[in-house]
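User: I want to check something. If I give you two sequences, will you return the structure for each one separately, not as a complex?

Assistant: Yes, each is folded on its own. Here is the first sequence with its structure:
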Amino acid sequence: MKGISLALVSIALGAVGQVILKLGADKLGNLSFAGRALVSDLLRIIKTPEIIFGMLFFGFSSLLWIKVLTRMDLSRAYPLVSISYIIVAVLSYLILREQFTVQKIIGIAVIITGVIVLNY
C-alpha cells in the first residue's frame, strides 16, 4: 500500500475510534475525576466496551501512522490528518444523529481545499 493510502486508512481508523469513544462517553455520563471519585471514574471508563474498542482503533491507527511516517515527509502527511474532521462530521451525522449544518459543509470544503493545496 502506498504512503498516502496507508495514511488515509490510519486517519479513518482514528476517526472511527473517536466516534466509538463518544458512544462510550455517552454511556458513562458525568465524570468528576475529583478526590475519591477518581478511582471509581477510571474503573467505569476501563469497563466500558466502547471505550476499549475506541482505544484499540486509536492504537492501531497510531501503529499505521508510524509506518506512514517511514514512507512520507511529515510536512506532506500531517495535513492529511485534517481529513479526520470530515470523517468525524459525517459519522457523527450518520451514527450520533448530530446536525450537519451549512457551516460544517463550508468547513469541509475549506479542509479539502487545504489538503489539495498542501499535497499537490
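And separately, the second sequence with its own structure:
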Amino acid sequence: MRISRSSFHAVVMAGAISCAIGIAFRTTGAVEAPGSAAVTLPGGAPGIGFDDLRFAPSLGLILAPAGRSGFLDLVEPASGKVTSVPGFSETGTWDGGHDQGVTSADEGAGFLFATDRTSGDLAIVDPKSRRIASRTKLGGPPDYVRFVPATRELWVTSPDRERIEVFRLGKEGPPTAVSDGFVPIPGGPESLVIDAKRGRAYTHLWDGETDAIDLAGRKIVAKWKNGCRGSRGIALDEERGFLFTGCAEGKATVLSVTDGHEISTASSGNGVDIIDYDSAAKRLYFPGGKSATMAIFDVSAEGKLSLRRIVTTSAGSHCVAVAPNGTAYVCDPRKGRLLAFRETTSR
C-alpha cells in the first residue's frame, strides 16, 4: 500500500532530545541541549510541518520554509540569528502534516522563490527588503521549487498531478514567474535536484525508481532503479557524478549519473525523507523521523558510503540542510524549531 507524503509526515512520535556530538558555538536566541543547539523559529511553538530545508550559497543562509507560521525563515549559520520573511499563509494550529503555508524554497538570480500550499501561490522574494515582490498562481498543489540557472526557469513539482510545472522568470526587476508548460512524471515526482553541469534534473518515483530529465528538452531521458522500497530524499555530488537516494525504510543508495548503476548502499534509521550532502566535506546527512536519529556518512572518491557516526535528534525529525561551516540543521516539527549539529573534521 502506497503511503502519501501527507500521511508519511503526519506520523510524529513523542521523544526527547539527546545529542551525540559536541559543537563549539552558540546561536543567538537558541536553547542549548547537550551537544547541540536548538534554533527557535518565530511562532513555531505550536509545531511546524517542515517539508524542505536548503542552504542558499549566494546569501550564506539556511532557508527554512516555516509552514503554518506564515514565515520563510532565514538562518545565519555562524550565529543562529533568524530573520523572517512575512506574507505567507498563516494558521494558528498545526495539523500534524506538512501542507500548511510555505513549505519549499530556493534561491537564484538574486531572488528567493517559495511555494505556499495554502494559497496555491509561487512567491518571488526580494532578499534585501525581506518582502514578497510578486506572486503567481500554481497549476496544482506544489511540493518542491527549484531554480534552473541555465534556462532561468523555476521547476515546481506537483505529485498530486504527477508532473512538474515550469515557469519562465522575467528579466525585469522585480521579476514575475510565467507558467510555461509541464513535464509529466507518472508515478511521481518525489524530490528534485538540478544538475547544471550535465543539463539534467533528477526526481524519484514513489516505488523505487529515479528519472533523469533533460532540462532543455523537458523530457525524461533515463529511468533507473534506485534500490528503495519507498523513494524519498535526493542529493547530488555534481562534481563527481553521484546521486544519493534516501529510502523511507532507512536505506541510502548511491547511483552513477552516467548510467544509473548502483555504486553503494548503507542502512540507518527509519522514516527517512529529506537528506543533504556536504560537497566540500564529502559527507551525506541522513535523518530518520521515526527513529529520531541522523546518520552521517563519509563518501569516498569511488562513491562508497562509510558510517561516520549516528546522532540522536528528535521524534519526527525527517529533514536536514547543511551549511559550509559543517553545521547541520535538522527540523524538529513538534516544537517548531531547528536542531543544530556541528560536525567535526576528524573522527
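Because they were folded independently, the notes below concern the second chain alone. Residues 183 and 218 are 6 Å apart (CA to CA). Residues 1-35 have pLDDT under 50 and may be disordered.
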